[in-house]
DNA sequence: CAGTGTTGCTTAATCGTTTAACTAAAGTGA
DNA sequence: TCACTTTAGTTAAACGATTAAGCAACACTG
């Protein structure tokens, strides 16, 4: 078996034509006769020719690689977004390189450097929890590489963004909980410096006021939103003199931690305390009781992100500017908030 | 700001030396004076030089990219393996391209083609559930590219493999369940054509015999091991005349489905029926009751896979051969199998 | 039949980096 | 001083594909 890889040179030699003719034949250039094209393709198949992507990328100045930066892949939201990005881009001849930041700003920067070094044609990213400094992302922009943000974005970067309406989502949740008769609703939110979590917090506060419910500083807690921190913050709420009768947690993972603590304390969910999460992770339908949550339309977000990137490639003079595509999220009501 | 990218040519011009000298200086070649090296590095920094990875990869015939093929990324096992592969390889200057097959053989093949096209230096893979045809993988081997398999492997490929001892794991589980007093233990296993699931099944059968427990064909069921199928197969077991008093499920996801069905039928876990899963996914510690499971040492597997790849690169004449690295799995006993 | 197009290729430069082979200058030892 | 080694570079040819420019050969037109 041929150990060395076949190049267009081999094909050219076999047919006694130039490598240029071979290259054009393989790209169906109109200036090559049908006869030659067929001959070239036949030989290419026989020799098991596979184009050297590096060479063509170098010559054409584009790699057909798109970098994806996510906080982690082992959440259903991100893995579903990624899957859909991949599906759309593969069809157009692009491949994706997935990197995870593990919510670390340092890792995120290193990942971005890696992607730039690999000469990706674009980057689709969702920011780490830690990220406040935007230098890394500015660097991408300054290189003239399309940058598309989703879910965890930042207006100040002035780039395309795809996400859901977090502010409205909070309203939907509070609306639902008040309908269930809840009067003292707490919120375990994310860090305020992250725009989406801040929007959820603002939505929570405004909705509480709108429904003329008590606003109590003790009921609004910032959290890293891990399962472990969800446990801690829920315990904190239970330790209050005046306990809430409902808790809205800005992430399903943290909500899961909260759920465990409630059960360990033999608290009746939802009758003593109702619980609503965020993200509609598959496990929300699997725990007992099943957990109400917000569906973020991950598939749609992935598709839109990929299509937005493609728009940038197709439109050469398209300049980066703040262009938000906001999807309307959907509240999935399950047992954890259905008060009898 | 410089819109065009800086190349070694720019550095060479700035210092009136050759590009060769610049290249060598940047690689700390011994034949370049310290003075020149320093000057080159200084100018490189000033001009914000970033090496063109494509060019160097083309010239050196290696891309420093490693492809990873997994069934999916949104399981803790795979995402943890990936994270550890990445950690080890990044340190050595390699980047990884992650692709998911979604358990589809077709997608797996396309992913592999993509990776080969991208000129990866090696591929680390875990096979899709569907995969029985090994042509795609033979293709990798025939190109002379190192292939390392983990978890879902296949002896016939004669390549490196890293995994746990599935056969022994089954023994551990049956041992534990009999100690708890279980006498009629069922197994919801994976498809027999997948080696690891077959090993778990063989382990189950042999352990049952060893403990002189009844072997009943109705107690051994093959499954796709999704949560949904776990529900179906558990229901099937409940419909039996003579129900089991323990069920060992070959995947945590399917075990979760089983757990739901048991709860819906108001069956006391573990006292009526004990339950053990496989994989030690984080949710096993979060559901009620917490689910006993097998820790597969994902971090260790990722590290070993990466290190095995590096061994192939370092040892030029290392030929591909069946070399198994088997880790001893650990049984994590939780409430679902602690009979009072 | 000269002029103009069209067809179907070839030539050669190019992308940015690496590296084998060469060279000039300086240093070393007897 | 001569022969030899060491040092610090330079030159030029790759790597494999793409593409602008060139050029035969033939067809067509008025």
From TrEMBL, chains A, B:
Tell me if Transcription regulation is a UniProt keyword of this record. yes
- The HTH lacI-type domain extends over 6-60
UniProt cross-references to PROSITE patterns, sorted A to Z: HTH_LACI_2 (PS50932)
Keywords annotated in UniProt: DNA-binding, Transcription, Transcription regulation
- What are the transmembrane regions? none
From which domain of life does this come?
Bacteria
Q: Give the molecular function GO annotations.
A: DNA-binding transcription factor activity; transcription cis-regulatory region binding
Q: Which Pfam families match?
A: LacI, Peripla_BP_3
Cross-referenced SUPFAM superfamilies = lambda repressor-like DNA-binding domains, Periplasmic binding protein-like I
Query: Do you know which CDD domains this protein is assigned to?
Result: HTH_LacI (cd01392), PBP1_LacI_sugar_binding-like (cd06267)
Among PANTHER family, the record links this protein to: HTH-TYPE TRANSCRIPTIONAL REGULATOR GALS, LACI-RELATED TRANSCRIPTIONAL REPRESSOR
What protein is this chain from? Transcriptional regulator, LacI family
> To which species is this protein native?
Cellulophaga baltica
